[in-house]
Design goal:
mainly alpha; 6 helices
Length: about 100
């Protein structure tokens, strides 16, 4: 960079500052895009929450549902995100964790 800017100290300082900003910026991954895609479809169907608490409760349920969901294919097939993280909730049924009776 210093070679390209040929000793212009102000430009070097600005370019260094810009590089720090860009390095600190969040980078997306295919996992994040997948979560955003799932969440977006749910939120588009439920545009109006009564308040922030209702929206947060819904988001909490979404997180529970997603992390309990067992992958059906690919290298993670047969395990949920919780299982892959070593978390054993005691059941694979997210509704049972919320107190609903298990399927008979």
């Amino acid at each position: 960079m210093e070679h390209l800017l040929d000793g212009y100290e102000t430009c070097i300082a600005l370019a260094t500052y810009l590089m720090r900003i860009l390095d600190a910026a969040g980078h997306t991954s295919s996992l994040i895009e997948c979560i955003n895609g799932l969440l977006k479809s749910f939120l588009n169907n439920r545009r109006a929450f009564r308040n922030r608490e209702t929206a947060q409760a819904y988001l909490n349920l979404f997180v529970l549902w997603h992390n309990m969901r067992v992958y059906e294919r690919g290298k993670r097939a047969g395990k949920s995100p919780y299982q892959r993280a070593g978390i054993d909730p005691g059941t694979n049924d997210w509704l049972e964790l919320l107190g609903y009776p298990a399927d008979a």
